[in-house]
Amino acid sequence: MKTLFKKLYSTSGCSGPINSNLISYYFSVINSSPNCNHLRHLHGRLLRTSLYDNVVLSSRLVLAYSQHHHLVPYSLSVFFHMPQRNIYSWNIIIGEFSRSNSPLKAIHLFLHMWQSSDVRPDDFTLPLVLRACVSSGTVKLAVSFHGLCLKLGFVRSLFVASALVFLYVSFGKIFDARLLFDGMPKRDAVMWTAMLDGYAKHEEPTLGLALYREMVDAGVSPDWVVMLSLLLICGQLGWLKHGKSVHGWCVRRSLGMELNLGNAIVDMYLKFAVLTYAHRVFNLMNQKDVISWSSLILGYGLSGDVSTVFELFDNMIAKGVKPNGVTFLGILSACAHGGLAEKASSCFELMGDYGVTPELKHYASMVDCLARAGHLEQAEEFIKGMPIEPDAAILGAILAGCRVHNNVEVGERIAKKLIGLEPEKPGYYVLLSNIYAAASKFDEAEKVREVMKGKNVWKVPGCSLIESESWPSSSAKQ
């Protein structure tokens, strides 16, 4: 450090034009600054010389302060005190705010540049502003910026077009995103990936597979981000075999079990209840976060493996990972399947100790646990004390418990509430009819069936999905 400052202050006596070597030297020093205190020394040195007038150095100083988590006030203050600003410096400050927790500030800075300076945006500026629109959720403003892109002639830029596709996908406007996508004469991997991700996340698996075929036919090599979308699509379509194919592709390409990809593969196997494979992938992951642990706990919880759930939970706490709502949902589901009503109650109370606020799904799991254990009156009292209004799923859990434990009295009360909430749902009528029939109250059961006929409500027969042998022609095996 002493050597660095000797070199730094050895330039104090320099005079005449500043050569490019000196600018490069200071640029390198700013770039390698270890902390904010060091940056302030450099900042002061630049102010005492004409070096601060160099827009490249002062812009790099703006970026350096932001990288040391001093976007406000240091980066912003340096930026507005710069002797001159060009599109490079504007892009830096707009980009840093668009990636921060204050994306609206990025939009305000862009508008300030547009209205109060002669600097005009380039095809790097507009994607930053569009990203800020996504982060801030300002849909109308985003559409206005799309209009500006058209006006300035940037819509054919790959950078801008990819950002627009991502923007419309993020706001759920898949049709608009596809129109933009189809209108581009050239597409890069970012645009293909954004469109495929949109189809996967908005549950359009068939369209997603068709796009994947086009992508491979166009010669675009899929990467791990594409694999994330394909894993999601396989889960939506119920294609375990093809999900395994995607997993195999990742192994053959030596992608490793990095966090996002590992979580996606674990989630895919859990959707098919292939817990052994999910657990194996989980163990191979280089790092694990709360999503990794919670997904596995939920998978085992839904399968009713109580011992494994609590073993995983204990290991998770021992590793210092703080549980979230999904974690407790898995625990409550395990307790429900195992008939552990008392254990579920203690775990429900434990949520507060970890700062997790119960949601409707947690209350539903708790009610389901009580109902399965036969504590139907207790479940009825539990929903009365809920801070939120119970929905049909919660009441349905009690009604299902009444069917199992032949509790006609509670069943009648809950069924009337459910039919009042959703009179078009045939399942409630059928359950009530079956409760009456199980209690040998055949006249009442017949009356319920007659009511169904009178309201023209019919129970649709169930169906199953069968996985075919075929895989799209351009498969992930490439």
Automatic annotation (TrEMBL):
<keyword id="KW-0472">Membrane</keyword>
<dbReference type="InterPro" id="IPR011990">
    <property type="entry name" value="TPR-like_helical_dom_sf"/>
</dbReference>
<keyword id="KW-0677">Repeat</keyword>
<dbReference type="Pfam" id="PF01535">
    <property type="entry name" value="PPR"/>
</dbReference>
<dbReference type="InterPro" id="IPR046960">
    <property type="entry name" value="PPR_At4g14850-like_plant"/>
</dbReference>
<dbReference type="Pfam" id="PF13041">
    <property type="entry name" value="PPR_2"/>
</dbReference>
<feature type="repeat" description="PPR">
    <location>
        <begin position="188"/>
        <end position="222"/>
    </location>
</feature>
<keyword id="KW-1133">Transmembrane helix</keyword>
<protein>
    <submittedName>
        <fullName>Mitochondrial editing factor 32</fullName>
    </submittedName>
</protein>
<dbReference type="GO" id="GO:0003723">
    <property type="term" value="F:RNA binding"/>
</dbReference>
<dbReference type="GO" id="GO:0009451">
    <property type="term" value="P:RNA modification"/>
</dbReference>
<dbReference type="InterPro" id="IPR046848">
    <property type="entry name" value="E_motif"/>
</dbReference>
<dbReference type="Pfam" id="PF20431">
    <property type="entry name" value="E_motif"/>
</dbReference>
<feature type="repeat" description="PPR">
    <location>
        <begin position="324"/>
        <end position="358"/>
    </location>
</feature>
<feature type="repeat" description="PPR">
    <location>
        <begin position="289"/>
        <end position="323"/>
    </location>
</feature>
<feature type="transmembrane region" description="Helical">
    <location>
        <begin position="154"/>
        <end position="175"/>
    </location>
</feature>
<dbReference type="InterPro" id="IPR002885">
    <property type="entry name" value="PPR_rpt"/>
</dbReference>
<keyword id="KW-0812">Transmembrane</keyword>
